[in-house]
Design brief:
This protein is of the alpha/beta class. It is about 45% helix and about 10% strand. The chain contains nine helices and six strands, in the order βαααααβαβαβαββα. β2, α6 and β3 form a beta-alpha-beta unit. The longest helix has 22 residues. It is globular.
């Protein structure tokens, strides 16, 4: 696969959102179920705000999703404990193969395109030791809406400086894959869970199990 630049989703693609469970272990009776709900509401609130035209940044969305999840689980942490839970999103761990795969993919231009707010993206990438891998770190903040809105994917063309057919967008989120493909980007789906594709009329150009397999296809 000839690729001049790769544009990556961040949460769930390069970094493992389930690592937030560690911060919840002392607070939630079932950390896995709690983080699953938290992530679900985080995404739902981003989609709903985009549809309603009432943008708030992803940090605020994540905070609101936390409060919903706390009430749903009947949890009442103090202010310090709640802050620790929220800040776990700033130290999400990368997948084991992430750093090596990114190293193999250079010297191609690499970029991030994420729902995350700018301060979230910078802190997560620095915490994961990945910041220096990326020439561009692009946030939806610039267009004040969320994926899968076409205006978000247009940021990749605009900032990387290449037409969409010369870019490869990479995401582990099937709905994100559909959105990017509908916009006209070539797309690789990192299907870690072995799940079925979304029935949205747009499928990926490439399906891989992890980022190491992605690097095999791009560099082979």
């Amino acid at each position: 696969m000839r690729v001049e630049a790769l544009v990556f989703d961040l949460f769930g693609t390069l970094v493992d959102v389930s690592s937030v469970e560690g911060a919840c272990a002392g607070e939630a009776p079932d950390p896995h179920a709690f983080v699953t709900l938290w992530r679900q509401k985080q995404l739902e609130y981003s989609w709903l705000r985009a549809l309603m035209g009432r943008y708030e940044d992803f940090w605020s969305v994540t905070s609101a999703a936390l409060d919903y999840s706390l009430e749903r689980f009947k949890m009442t942490p103090g202010d310090a404990a709640r802050r620790r839970l929220l800040e776990a999103w700033l130290a999400v761990r990368p997948y084991p193969e992430t750093a090596a795969a990114l190293a193999r993919l250079q010297p191609r231009s690499l970029a991030i395109l994420s729902n995350g707010s700018p301060h979230m993206l910078e802190q997560v990438l620095r915490s994961a030791g990945l910041r220096d891998r990326f020439a561009h770190v692009l946030s939806v903040e610039e267009v004040r809406t969320y994926k899968p809105a076409p205006a978000v994917y247009a940021l990749a063309e605009r900032h990387v400086g290449l037409p969409r057919e010369r870019l490869l967008f990479v995401s582990s989120n099937a709905w994100d894959v559909a959105g990017a493909r509908a916009f006209g980007l070539r797309v690789a789906w990192v299907n870690r869970a072995g799940g079925p594709p979304e029935r949205l009329g747009e499928g990926p150009d490439l399906i891989v199990r992890d980022l190491a397999e992605l690097a095999d296809h791009v560099t082979g």
